[in-house]
Write a structure and sequence with these properties.
The complex is a heterodimer of chains A (144) and B (128).
Chain A lengths: L5 E4 L3 H6 L10 H9 L3 E7 L5 E12 L3 E11 L8 H15 L5 E2 L7 H9 L20
Chain B lengths: L8 E4 L7 E4 L4 E6 L27 E13 L2 E2 L1 H13 L3 E8 L8 E13 L5
Antiparallel strand pairs in B: 1-2, 2-3, 4-5, 4-7, 6-7
The chains are: A alpha+beta (144), B mainly beta (128).
Chain lengths: 144, 128
């Protein structure tokens, strides 16, 4: 196992922009600054041996009166040419470790029931399926 | 760096290459223990880690071999105790060269007492 690289915490906007191609959309300057400054917000990059980002995982600590603080694994992405080499598994394992070290009561993530790759990745980090959740959402309409 | 970061220390290796790896507070470093050290890692700035390639003018070093008894449940080492020991030695300037699981007298059962043979290394002055 192991792809020969490492995992670092993204602390600077340039870290995020260096990994921009791994995100669904282009990171915004303000949102990036807000994320990096916010307490309980975590973003880690997997680097290949020459230092180029090839994967990322983001996670946010959420607190509820009856549950204490839990870690929500927000997104995880790996460069297509680096899949099946343990990068996603290492990122998920790393976030679970951060949750443990931060005193979180648990770690949770949502994925589709037929996303076998994601399920394998999360199982490899010791997570187990809890439900077939359905996501229901509202999105602010873009102004014409 | 955010105050949310786990503190620096030796922890189970999330990269799956060794038993323990050193987290410096924001990066998993190339320093590992419990198996062969892999090739050095770069980072975003292209730096090479603390265990970088050997150079011809190698620093003279001294070694110290230590055997510790640890509780092992299944294959999992009681990493708190090992973490504490390694960080104590790190503060004294020692770094880990190798760490191997060994048999210790009296080690029986699934939650047995087992041993770790740890080799430490630190630079010494040549006095020249």
């Amino acid at each position: 196992m192991g792809w020969g690289g490492t995992i670092i915490r993204a602390t600077q906007p340039e870290h995020v922009f260096a990994a921009a191609r791994l995100f669904d959309d282009e990171p915004g300057a303000q949102a990036t600054a807000d994320f990096l400054a916010a307490s309980g917000h975590h973003l880690y990059l997997a680097l290949e041996p020459d230092g180029r980002p090839i994967g990322f995982v983001s996670a946010v600590e959420m607190t509820h009166p009856d549950k204490g603080t839990e870690m929500f694994l927000y997104e995880l992405g790996v460069d297509p040419s680096w899949r099946h080499q343990g990068v996603g598994s290492a990122l998920a394992t790393h976030v679970r470790w951060v949750a443990e070290q931060s005193g979180c009561q648990g770690l949770w993530v949502l994925t589709d029931p037929d996303n076998d790759a994601a399920l394998r990745t999360y199982r490899s980090a010791g997570l187990t399926e809890q439900s077939n959740a359905v996501m229901v959402e509202w999105t602010r309409p873009t102004n014409p | 760096m955010s105050s949310d970061d786990p503190v620096a220390g030796w922890y189970p290796d999330p990269l799956g290459e060794a038993e323990l790896r050193y987290w410096d507070g924001s990066t998993w470093t190339p320093q590992v223990a419990g198996s062969e050290a892999p090739e050095p890692h770069g980072d975003l700035h292209g730096r090479v880690g603390a265990r970088g390639p050997h150079t011809p003018q190698r620093q003279r070093v001294e070694y110290d071999v230590q055997t510790v008894r640890v509780t092992i449940v299944g294959d999992k080492v009681n990493d708190k105790a090992v973490n504490s020991l390694l960080n104590k030695r790190a503060r004294e300037g020692w770094s880990v060269t190798s760490m191997n699981r060994i048999d210790v007298k009296g080690g029986v059962g699934p939650r047995g007492v087992d041993g770790l043979l740890i080799v430490f290394e630190r630079p010494v002055d040549d006095g020249q």
